[in-house]
Amino acid sequence: MDDFDIVRELAALKEGIPVLPMQHYQVCVHTGDRWAAETDANVYITIFGQKGDTGRRLLYRSKEHDYKFIRDQVDIFELEAVSLEDLTKIIVSHDGVGHGAGLYLEKVVISEKDGPNNGKDIVFPYGHWLDDNEEDKKVEVELFPDDAAAQSEFVEKDIATLKDIDNYASKGEWNVWVTSGDDSDAGTGAKVCVVVYGLNGSTEMIELKNEDVEEFKSDETQQFCISVGEIGPIYKIRMTLDSPEHDASFYLLRMKMKDVDTNQEFHFPYNDWLKMTDGSRDAYLELPAIWPDVKPLQAQKYVLSVTTGDKPGSETFADLYCTLIGDWGDTGKRMLSKSNNKRPFKNGQMDIFTMDILDLGKIDKVIIGHNSEGRGAGWYCANVTIKSSEDANSEVVFPCHRWFDSDLEDHKLERELVPAVELPVVTTDDSEGEETKPETKGEWKVLVTVATLEKQQNGVKIDKVTLTIYGEQGVTKPVDLKSKQGSAFEPEKTEEFDINVGLIGDIYKVRINQESQGSITPHWHVKEICMEDIHTKEQLKFDYSRWLGQENVDSALELPALRAGGKGLPVVPYQISVKTGDDSDAATYSNVFITLFGKKGDTGMRQLAENKDKSFKFQKGQIDVFTMDAVELGQIDRIVITKGPGDPWMLDRITVKEEFASSEGVFSHNGWLGDRDHTNDHIDVELLEPEINPSVVATPNDGTEEPRVSQGEWTVWTLTSDDDGAGTTAQVYVTLCGDKGDTERIHLLPNGRDVFAKGETGDFDIKVTEDIGVVFKVRVGFMDNSESANASWKLDTIRFKDKHTKEEFSYEYNDWIVTSTELDGIVEFPVIWPAFPYMPMTKYQVAVYTGDKDNASTNAHVYVTVFGEMGNTGFRYLHRSKNNDNKFEQGQMDLFEVGAVCMGDLTKVVVGHDGQGIGSGWYLDKIVIKELPDDDLEYVFKCDRWLDEGEDDGKTEVELNLTREREITTWKVVTTTGTDETNSTDATVSLVLYGDKGHSKPLAITREGGFTYAEGQTDEFEVETGEDIGDVYKLRIGYEDISNKPQWFLKTLTMQPIPSGEECTFELNGWIWVSDTQDGWREIPLKKANPEEMLDVYKYCVEVYTGNESGAGTDAEVYLQIFGERGDTGVRRLIGALNNTTKFETGQMDVFEVEAVDMQKLTKIVIGHNGKGFGSGWYLNKVKIKESPNANKKYIFNCDRWLDEGEDDTLIERELPLSEVIDDDKEEPEVKDGDWKVVVSTSPQENGGTDAQVSLTVFGEKGDTGSLPLGIPGGGLFESGKTDEFTVFVDPEKVGKVQKIRIEHDNAHNAPGWHLNKIVMKDLHNDRELEFSVNRWLDVEEEDGDVVRELPALWPNEDPLPATKYVIQTHTSDDIGAGTDANVYLTLYGEKGDSGKRSLRRNVEENEKFEKGKVDTFHIEAVGLDKLTKVVIGHDGQGSGSGWHLDKVTIKESEEATQEIVFPCNRWLDEDEDDKKTERELFPDEQSYVN
């Protein structure tokens, strides 16, 4: 074999001297195992021996390898030379210049192939660089056999050391050599491009091309010149193929780069294919630039999990791409085409992709997007998670929760995502059961990390961090985390806290507040919050680093708890629009705060700090827009607005919406927050029940693009399932339904291939010629959908795209479409436009009633089209009855189901038949339609005519308009009468059905022309209720007409909703009769499978007490209705008393029996009479009711009023609430401290009693009881000359020792005036008694006109509080219109209490009050106020010209007092003047005391 040497030696021939032999030397060059050890420089060797040297020889061709001097490789060369005899040294050198051109030489081993030393190896060790930029920078070295010189120590450097390179001299001009493989197809006609990455940046994509070279050929090296710019030291390259064919390939053997100026060079061996495929349209590779002794970037298989949102319309067919960006460059734009799922980016789906790339280091962001424009072509991304390898134990979460849609939000198709948190990857350990998982005790360790010093503003320190934690079952109060290191958190430090959050369930978000000192402008300094459950070891991490160092960040920031796969609620921006009122002084400069409340928690109180325009906020008539980031709240149902100290503010309304949501909530207020007398207060207002309005879902288009107009040309794709038998050869059609109308059936023509075969995707071009408006649903079916067609097709997905507007929508059906004797081969689905509401799929139950006439039935094929507010079902055959074998028989009701997109309220039905078959004519009674499964609403379409070519008008198709819509009201009622011949009746029977939502009206169960319930007979009826009564629990049955005293023995009665529903059974086995004491009604509880669960039936004992007044009795017919917590008795006649022959006599008590199902606690009664008969008026004292004659508990309903058209208020029916419950068998409750008996004695004056509401307030050393009502108005209390007793509780801890009482009434009802004699209070616990003598009127027409009296407590041997009769003068101003006719009131406040609100009704002057320029004098009696501190005065705004200009109020403590206290006002109390207040708080002018 030739040694390829270009040098030859010949031995000299000299006579007498032996000729030196020729020797073949084998030279083994060991390249070291170091980064960048290889070289493609020319390497030379000179071998020295006892007989001279070989001269400098080029090591030209390695015997074992195509490429020589590769890292960790041994290359063998052969040299022929005249024998040197014993070798003494060698010199090794190369001609490489620049970084990366050198060689790391481990050693050289030389052996002789001939001669006496044949096979003996002579080793020349080295272990150093031959590199003009490394170690001693030599490229030539002299080596000796078995030299003991130490090998250089190998210290592998991190790639980060490249950043330490100074004075990098490259000008960015490089030569590039690309060598292709030697396979015949190794070359390529595609564009070959590279991207070069340096520490200072990267190049754009550079195409490797030469003018004289059109393509890369096999087994060829091509040279190119490229300019990379000043990108700094190079650390990697990326090579890609670019071809429109998506099937290009190229075999790259190796690539070399050499700096034109510095001679630095890099070698990039690859020796593999670069290919594009349908499954992966990317053809790319990344190769590291290898520097001497520097560990290059390592290959990684990154795992990307991309989660599509679950919002309607989130899925996409677009080609998605992403770019990962990290410490070491980026991946370039990579197509996400090879998912773990058959079809990627489906709604709610997680798709997993892998990327074989070089290590990026820490990934800082992800750019993700697509290029498909048009409505519906976009995508909603929930999040992206990234693992650095398939077996990595953690993943980084990049939340998104945004649309990528040209018609939504900000119209962006590409977004930049930043990391939120790094989470451990959860693995399932089947060996560990659920029972081993420890339960949380709510105890957590919290780690708070603050920013590094350079991220903090000078002088700013964090005092305190407050954490609020939200769980699925509760929320903590704000938890204060104060630094343990001193007064503030130190930079770069992490502090640990132990907290107990309680059992609040799974944590789903945290809100953190930071408080700083030393800065006017807030900066964010908290970097991270980590939480670990002490018991379960669950870890949660919340990364706030994206806000570090930012100014004007909200002092409260929220983040969701993210778990495996990035699952967690999104952070969304809420847009808050605040409208200030239009009044002249509506504005405020106060701080305003807002708290939003939704289904998923609240935002906490947030300041509305900076509006969108950065202008003055809350000005008159202005709308201020604010943005607040918060973890998603769901539907916002209330807000709380807080105004800080400062001017009052008139708030008109607040509008809240998620940014770009399709609806917004408007919270109206139209009122003031605060007033000028309380400017130092915080004012809270809660606003509820927002008005929901539609809202824009995108920012306005900038107008640069003309809106696309549809030309009606669409492309349709169908994907047939790959299930066995899924395909079809039947003809398929589609119908597009819009808000202006529907298309005709559009036949999807197969174009000559089997497009509906199993697993096939068909594509079709269709033309819509009609203006159908916005498409909202699609109908798909077989062109022949008759019963005999017998076709089936399993449709996986169907997709539509408008060729001109680029709008598109799809629907994943994944079900069968079948035409058979049962199914009509037609399906509908809604068009789901992203971010817009859509109508759901609905099954309609169609009940078809064939008339009960001779020959009414038909064998023809019947069809219907149902119309609603939102479209129609299309033409649908009614194939098979759900409830009958033979459909459309005379007198029969047949049930069918029709699937369709919900049509809203139904409006009409078109029904007909094809006239086929003998006797095809058909008499249709009606059609009743409702939504399934069990909608309460039914739509009735009455027909009542023939559809017959030989009857009526000969039509076989009619249009039926809606007759009525109703709740489920049709019931089948079946009664069974007793078998005895006396058990029957021909009376009309009525029933009332009770449920937990209400009851029906009385329903007659009879037939036209009369009916007899015969003995032993079972009879069937239909009744209709008009209400949703809920779950049935009882029945009342009886007679409306009792004149003939009917009687009937009912065994059982069943009721069942038509057409379907649960049957209700009621068993009586008893008489329903009318007698001297029975009113003809019975109540029956619903029968239960377990008899113990059935409700009891009580015979309520009703005692009716007629009053003693003259003429109190009545001969009228009295009726009663009893109400309880569970239902009522209905109106029941009180026919005959059980204890008296003549009922309702003066002073008499009559006992009646009323049978009813247990009503639980009784609450009220309605009692009245029919007003007939001489002297029908009736004075009712009270009614007592017991659950049975022997029951101990009595329900008392007091009346003490006339039921008389000529007395009292002329009413002959009264509703009486429960007055009290007396339990004769109940033990007396234990008397406790604070229990008092109050005995009120009304004076025996004529008309001294009252029917007003009387109240008592007890005042003590510590406080008061508040107003305690004594009885109820009109309850027969406080009658002239009578004494009434009440029990009240006076809390000794809150009130203390009694000092005074206030007794008053509300001056309401017919006779409110009251002459009170005295009040006695008895302390039941301590056996003490206080007597308060009054003997005064509480009457606006008597004495001083006051209806309030205060009385001091008279304790033995103690001075009582003084009672003062204040003389009060109001000074009305002399301004025009200053007077008022309104009702004026006043409250006095002293250092020890107040007088209560008093009406200034009767002035001492006894003339017109509050006239312009007039002084009016009034007396008010009060106890123990001490020195007066203020007065509150106002009026009720009643009467024309109610506004009042008050100059001042003056007060003296008696008529004789010389000191007068002045309370200046000089303002309007007028809804139309000044600040529009009708009440003012006045304070004494201390300088104005007049002696």
pLDDT averaged residue by residue: 88
Distance between the termini: 140 Å
The count of helical stretches stands at 0
Class based on secondary structure composition and strand pairing = mainly beta
Strand content: over 45%
Instruction: Give the low-pLDDT segments.
Output: 429-434, 517-521
The radius of gyration over CA amounts to 49 Å
The share of residues in helices is under 10%
Characterization of this structure:
With 1491 residues, the chain is mainly β. Helix content is 0%, strand content 47%. It has no helices and 101 strands. Strands 2, 3, 4, 6 and 9 form a 5-stranded antiparallel beta sheet that branches. Strands 11, 12, 13, 15 and 18 form a 5-stranded antiparallel beta sheet that branches. It is extended, with a radius of gyration of 49 Å.
Question: Which keywords apply here?
Answer:
1491 residues, mainly beta, 5-stranded antiparallel β-sheet, 101 strands, 0% helix
What's a quick, concise take on this entry?
The protein has 1491 residues and is mainly beta.
What is the topological layout?
Elements: E1 22-31, E2 43-49, E3 52-53, E4 57-58, E5 74-82, E6 87-94, E7 103-112, E8 121-130, E9 140-143, E10 173-180, E11 191-198, E12 201-202, E13 206-207, E14 221-227, E15 234-242, E16 249-259, E17 265-275, E18 284-288, E19 299-308, E20 320-326, E21 329-330, E22 334-335, E23 350-358, E24 363-370, E25 379-387, E26 394-404, E27 414-417, E28 421-424, E29 443-450, E30 461-471, E31 474-475, E32 479-482, E33 494-500, E34 507-517, E35 526-533, E36 539-543, E37 556-560, E38 571-580, E39 592-598, E40 601-602, E41 606-607, E42 623-631, E43 636-643, E44 649-658, E45 663-673, E46 683-688, E47 691-694, E48 713-720, E49 732-738, E50 741-742, E51 746-747, E52 761-767, E53 775-782, E54 792-802, E55 808-818, E56 826-830, E57 841-850, E58 862-868, E59 871-872, E60 876-877, E61 893-901, E62 906-913, E63 922-931, E64 937-947, E65 957-961, E66 964-967, E67 970-977, E68 989-995, E69 998-999, E70 1003-1005, E71 1018-1024, E72 1032-1039, E73 1047-1057, E74 1064-1073, E75 1081-1085, E76 1097-1106, E77 1118-1124, E78 1132-1133, E79 1149-1157, E80 1162-1169, ...
Antiparallel strand pairs: 1-5, 1-7, 2-3, 2-4, 2-6, 6-9, 7-8, 10-14, 10-16, 11-12, 11-13, 11-15, 15-18, 16-17, 19-23, 19-25, 20-21, 20-22, 20-24, 24-27, 25-26, 26-28, 29-33, 29-35, 30-31, 30-32, 30-34, 34-37, 35-36, 38-42, 38-44, 39-40, 39-41, 39-43, 43-46, 44-45, 45-47, 48-52, 48-54, 49-50, ...
